[in-house]
Design brief:
The complex is a heterodimer of chains A (113) and B (110). Chain A has 113 residues and is mostly beta strands. In chain A, strands 2, 4, 5, 6, 9, 10 and 11 form a seven-stranded mixed beta sheet that branches. Chain B is mainly beta and 110 residues long. In chain B, strands 2, 4, 5, 9, 10 and 11 form a six-stranded mixed beta sheet that branches. In chain B, strands 1-3-8-7-6 form a five-stranded antiparallel beta sheet, with no helix packed on it. Chain B is globular. Classes of the chains: A mainly beta (113), B mainly beta (110).
């Protein structure tokens, strides 16, 4: 039972390059999320999707776009990477609103040079 | 950025000792979760507490939700090296909206 799968695990980008982080869950969850984790800042919500076909901004959406491709997959795109986007990115999923907690993926460590 | 205050930030103890981690906020939460995160991995859900005053036990870990649903504690009895990790609390303020704590980094020495 894979849970939430993220790819890639590590990535180095040059400033201005673009890339897409992939996320897939096999738990039939309706809701999916993208977070970034930075030292001293905790986990911060970038975007979320409450159900297939819907997406909403979180706390730090600038510089990112998302696509809820189907119920299983939720991708995060950086159109023009900046050093401030160096972070560890986590995808998560939950039943409905997340009231009982999330299942997280293992993360993508992104460095923008 | 709203954050939950966790204390202590760092804790290094000997195997067999007891410890308590605290999570405090001025916000009222509809539910609160505790997660443990190991290096290179995502947070793993340990428990969800919902009712003010609720106490839940998971083997040697005891979780308590404050009566006013603004704070929580995690107590570990007879800590073991396998308990080493980053402990995060997260409070639900709205559907799909959490506030995460900055974490308590625990190291248990054998």
């Amino acid at each position: 039972n894979a849970g939430v799968t993220q790819t890639p695990k590590f990535q180095v980008l040059k400033t201005g390059q673009s890339m897409t982080l992939q996320c897939a869950q096999d738990m039939n969850h309706n809701s999916m999320y993208w977070y970034r984790q930075d030292p001293g800042m905790g986990l911060r919500l970038i975007y979320y999707s409450a159900s297939e076909g819907t997406t909403d901004k979180g706390e730090v959406p600038n510089g990112y776009n998302v696509s809820r491709l189907n119920k299983r997959e939720f991708s995060l795109r950086l159109e023009s990477a900046a050093p401030s986007q160096t972070s560890v990115y986590f995808c998560a999923s939950s039943e409905e609103t997340g009231f009982y907690g999330y299942t997280f993926g293992s993360g993508t460590r992104l460095t923008v040079v | 950025t709203q954050l939950l205050e966790q204390s202590p930030q760092f804790l290094s103890i000997q195997e067999g000792e007891n410890l308590t981690v605290y999570c405090n906020s001025s916000s009222v939460f509809s539910s609160l979760q505790w997660y443990r995160q190991e290096p290179g991995e995502g947070p793993v859900l340990l428990v969800t507490v919902v009712t003010g005053g609720e106490v839940k036990k998971l083997k040697r870990l005891t979780f308590q939700f404050g009566d006013a649903r603004k704070d929580s504690s995690l107590h570990i009895t007879a800590a073991q090296p396998g308990d080493t990790g980053l402990y995060l609390c997260a409070g639900v303020i709205l559907p799909h909206k959490y506030i995460f704590g900055t974490g308590t980094r625990l190291k248990v020495l054998a």
